[in-house]
Amino acid sequence: MNKYETPKPHIRFRTPEQLQGYLERAGNAEFNFRAYPISGEPETFHYNSREKVVTREKDGRAFDSLDDFICYAFQCDAEGYPNTEYVDLEVLN
Q1: Residue 35 resides in a domain
Q2: How far apart are CA 90 and CA 66, in angstroms?
Q3: Nearest-CA neighbor of 11 among 27, 31, 49, 28?
Q4: d(CA 85, CA 16)
Q5: Residue 1 domain-assigned?
Q6: How many domains does the structure of the chain reveal?
Q7: Residues 83, 30: contact at Cβ < 8 Å?
Q8: Quick check: is 4 in a domain?
């Protein structure tokens, strides 16, 4: 972002269920978004709501399911419990 761009608002999701509900309510939309974890660097993704597919921009990796992406975003453990308090999401387009 350069100094002339206005920062986009972030949406904070405190539970995996909140994030899943948001993505499922997207209708037939396709959009790019950036996820900001508590620790680590933000990553950019593409979501295709018709196919329920999330793809990571940097390597083109598609997650096997929406659940897999949500667990990735919330840094879930092997049992599926989140290891982070929240994920911020910024819709890019």
Answers
A1: yes
A2: 18
A3: 31
A4: 10
A5: no
A6: 1
A7: no
A8: no
